[in-house]
Amino acid sequence: MLKLTGLSKRYDTGDLALNDINLTVPAGQVMALIGPSGAGKSTLIRCVNRLVEPSHGTIELDGQDVTRVRGARLRQTRRQIGMIFQNHALVERLSVMENVLSGRLAYVGFWRSFFRRFPADDIRQAFNLLERVGLQTQFDKRGDALSGGQKQRVGIARALMQQPKLLLVDEPTASLDPKTSRQIMRLICDLCREQQLAAIINIHDVVLAQQFVDRVVGLRGGELVFDGDPKDLSPDILTSIYGEEDWSVVDDDDDTNDSSAPAGVDIAGAHP
Fold this sequence. Notes:
Layout: E1 2-10, E2 16-25, E3 30-34, H1 41-48, E4 56-61, E5 64-65, H2 71-79, E6 81-84, H3 96-101, H4 105-108, H5 110-114, H6 120-132, H7 148-161, E7 166-170, H8 178-195, E8 198-202, H9 206-212, E9 215-220, E10 223-228, H10 235-242
Parallel strand pairs: 3-8, 3-9, 6-7, 7-8
Antiparallel strand pairs: 1-2, 1-4, 4-5, 9-10
Helix pairs in contact: 6-7, 7-8
């Protein structure tokens, strides 16, 4: 479980990016973080994984105060926080398997990782995850030979290789087409529920969030202005988050023929 209490961040410029944020995200819950650019969404995620130091407040992950740890303890804490990046952040000259196994770098030590000598259990887990995300037949393909959707699937598998307790996801569908976006969102949400992971997804696509997540939190000007069920995002609430606009409901019925696996991939196949 993730718990934020009185979380605030004021930058050296004097800008207040977050103001007294109080949130609890239980295990297995997928929460979407929405709001206009500059609302504080990225700052909140960066505070949670300590890429940005909070000015005030506490961040607790399963009872441990993340804001107080330093050095080796901070590195150990970060093992428990998986990140999925908007730009995928793959090493494109490496294979899919090598990119996924990089999720174990914090565990195996420098020399084993340098010579790519990962334990057999890690390799089996990597194959299992590649099968789950629909890429088991692509394990030896280079990262730069993948489509955007495939790269995002590799990023998901890599994050899960850490065996995290919390998943932070930054705009996972920003560069994807509508069908692939739905597949990726469905896959992330299904995996979080299967593995009882708390997750925060920073996302601009409100309709996509409404379709898949358990809960939506809206930020504006660094303050929490909505926290509730996706179905409760009325035009008035969207106006309070984003400002005046025509918030007519978009009819976006789920594609029942869509699956979480990319076309042409049989996720039931055997391991290579």
